[in-house]
Amino acid sequence: MPLYRFGLSLSRKESDAFDLTQHTFLTWATKGHQLRDRTKVKTWLFTTLYRQFLSDKRRAEHFAEAHEDAQFVEPPHVSPSVVNAIDAGIVQQALHDLEDRYRAPVTLFYMQQHSYREIAEILEIPIGTVMSRISRGKAEMRAKLTDLAATDARKVISMPKEQRQ
Amino acid sequence: MNDAEARAILSVYRPGESGIEDPRFEQAKCYAKSHPEVAQWWAEQQELDDLIALKLVSTPVPSDLKMRLTAWEQRSLRRTTWSRAALLLAASIVAAAVMFSSWRGPFQPAVSLADYRDEMVSFVKVTPKLELESSDLSRLQEFLAKANAPAHFNIPEKLKDLGPLGCRVLRFHGHDVSLICFERAEGKLVHLLVIEAAAVAKADGATNPQYAAEGEWTTATWTEGGHTYLVTTKGDRTLLEKYVGSS
Prior knowledge:
The structure holds two protein chains of two kinds.
Chain A: H1 2-11, H2 14-31, H3 41-57, H4 60-63, H5 80-85, H6 88-97, H7 100-111, H8 116-123, H9 127-155
Helix pairs in contact in A: 1-2, 1-3, 1-7, 2-3, 3-8, 6-9, 7-8, 7-9, 8-9
Chain B: H1 3-10, H2 23-34, H3 36-57, H4 65-78, H5 82-100, H6 113-125, E1 132-133, H7 137-146, H8 157-160, E2 163-172, E3 175-183, E4 189-196, E5 210-214, E6 217-224, E7 227-234, H9 237-244
Antiparallel strand pairs in B: 1-2, 2-3, 3-4, 4-7, 5-6, 6-7
């Protein structure tokens, strides 16, 4: 499932996420035996899915950017009411709303399955760039979480306690 | 270094991350040690990061995803020679293991009881949103059953004596976890989380509560009738024993 969730975060569409996952699965079935270091299977799968995403979207040139200095930014404050309102839908929407360059590293950061070095390998960018994008992406995401939680709160219609489902 | 610079650096630092040689991390950590408000801010940031990570992992996936992918796998096998079929099968088994199980390769540990305990405590530390609010336990268990989550389990009698507030279902590595929240007399919460026992690798299978401290929180875990139970609250073991019983 982590591969599918990564694909969904990148593509923003369930059908595209399935296609990306299936393509990765197919590539593994046909070329996986070429991978000599079996400890790299997971990184290889994520890299393959990411490359396919770039290829599908013809964004390779857009993503092939020069090294960015590891400049970090302070994330904005998130109020307790926003924290309480955060759910899977809001998190997914906030990721979808991120700029492309931040979405992949921030998603991999929050999936908590890869070290910074592995994220750099998957995205094929320098580790300093990974950390810089995670810093800026997290800051951007916190701002979006606050906006989305506020929007979500406005949608809530109060119901009698026993009727909430 | 000032507060803002330290916060910016700490927001990227991940405890346990190895292979990063950036002296700014050490400087920022030292700064936090001498500035309690920055240390407090950092702790809150880590809790928020854990919460976001948990929510991301609970993003639903199509219920037929596995079926659709394995259908493709079977079609491929029918079209290939036996040697290629064997190769495809072996490759697919590994890929499927990566995708659908808790197998994470030799570089990641399996999901252990400690992992489960950590994740659940980090989840309830921020008061969770409930899907059903009710003080009627049978109604809560009925809701959980309809959601196909663990529902038919025994609740400790002393816990039942507290007023239940509500329940919700969350996901942990592909498994449903039933959460029922109870209110302590002083307005604090006690959380009961139940997951099928097979979902947690290396569970010790203890039928008596096993206590562990998680910062300011204490947990009690045990296995009974095919379920692994976890009860947690902010407080020490003596407090939790009042609701669960001693081991």
